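Reading a protein record of the kind used here takes only a little practice. To see the layout at work, look at the sequence and tokens printed below.
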Amino acid sequence: MADAVAATLSTGQHLLVQAGTGTGKSLGYLAPVLSHLAAHPDDRVVVATATLALQAQLASKDIPAALDAVERVTGRRPRHAVLKGRSNYACLLRVRDQVIDDQDALVTGADLLAQAEGARPTTADPTPGGPGAGPGSSALGAQVLALREWAEEQAGGGGLADRDDAPSHGPKAWAQVSVPVRECLGAARCPWGEVCFVEKSREKAREADLVVTNHALLAIDAMHGGTALPEHTAVVIDEAHELVGRVTGAASGELSPAHLERVARRCLTWLDDDLGGEFLDTADVLREALEEAAPERLTDPDHPVVQALRTVRDVARRVVSAMGRGEGGQSGEVDPEQRQAGSVAKEVFDLAERMAALAEADVVWVLDRERAGRELRVAPLSVAGLMRSHVLSQHPTVLTSATLQVGGDFTATAASIGLQTRERTDDPTRAPTEEVLSWRGIDVGSPFEYRRQGILYVAERLPPPRRDGITPETLTEVAELVWAAGGRTLGLFASQRAAEAAAAHVRRELKDHTVLCQGEAQLSELTRRFAEEPETSLFGTVSLWQGIDVPGDTCELVIIDKLPFPRPDEPLMQARQQAVTEAGGNGFMQVAATHAALLLAQGAGRLIRRATDRGVVAVLDPRLVTARYGAFLRSTMPPMWTTTDREVAVQALRRLQETRQAS
């Protein structure tokens, strides 16, 4: 892997490298990248990860270790920096623009936080001004005050006020001390622009040889002409199996009547009564149109929802113009609050304009959310063009993950990010064109002996999954397998409802077993308990399918209740399948089956995390062996020994228990 990455940096040929769990792929690309930077001090390389967790691991563990080695060998120590999106740093305008009551200033935020967490207000003391009164003594108020004090300490000490380093807090508290991209005034206009944490983080990135960022910021940089990242000569994309999803998310938008109403109310102070009332009314116009619409993709320009969007667009355009004028209706400087409110109105205008256009490159649909009501979503039909034009054609790029091959080949992954089959240098049918982006794919394997360490059990005799929920037969199978494993089970379910039903059933049937279920506490707390309490089981949904790393005998059984196909009525996936079919391809296999294969491989990969791990992956969906696409899905999973005999799986799990007890 290191040799292949080094070749990409010297030749410019793009590289897709599948590196199995346990390979040490972070060092597999860091070693050649840092060696290259030591020899080429004018170059800069960007490493983009999917998660903040991997960013933190790279910055605190992997990169320092690699830098020590590079310095010993070359005598040079390249500089590195972590760069995140704007909302991950505290905003001094938000921090210093908030007035703190003298009463609140008498104690520190840490004191208030300890008080709030240790003693909640009760109905026994409802007196105004008594314990629990006022924002300072509520948990939220205490968190905000603690965050402000921390931000000031960071400013005084030369820190970056990175959220990962902040005191304990929730998302609502963080929203009080940070600012979304749209609402930022910019360093030139902000009174605290010269000491802005975001600007300092960007300055550090410009001084660094290696910049660690995330997929979303890489996408934003591509969409906005290279303004988010410093100039660089090469890109490494880690966790590349998530790239399409993350870039899609960064290029997507949503608009709801409730959000539209909040934006309108925020702008009322600076609008005349007529325009302010008209802006507020657009929320009702959109709400009424959505209530009559089916939750599906919009393609008809005369659809009532599209007509409502045009109304929103036209009114929002006038609002943006009015919000850009200062006192007396003159163009020029406006106060910071007005400018921020105007930026939010501009975001509404941009979204409404984009959605109303119904562009071929976009998918616009009505989404029905149980609690929040209906809203509109827009997402790009494909991110391949964006990645090809603004990333791959600009820089040599390495993409790596434990799961990049689908059906035994890199073609599907390459196509999804803008690389074409005919461009492969190892493809004899390749025809040279003016826009060839040369690439190759390699699989460096895994240090694990999957056939000896793991069993893949497919419950062929169970009934196929139902749309209306998990079947009684499947619940019975879950309980028996958990019993055989003595707990130690990670349950990966297709829906929250299925996870909760399975957890309730196992708790009834196996009263001496502890089963944790996603949603019952913070995910970080649940995964910590799962790791620390070996006989405990953890059931959950999509966020547990990838990223959770629990080696050892804590996890000896992974249960997958249903093949993770996207919902057949999900408009974006539907549109992508239709586009492939219309282009002459197989929409189901190239979109839905590929999506399921990658996620299935990630889920099964939770079992074997080190060379001494043993266990069973139990897929309780018979289609994995009975359907025509089953072999395609299995070829993407770790190559474990496979059986459809439940007794074989149960006895294997029992033997693991007995071996533990004997030792």
In short: Residues 99-107, 119-137, 429-434 have pLDDT under 50 and may be disordered. Residues 20 and 374 are 41 Å apart (CA to CA).
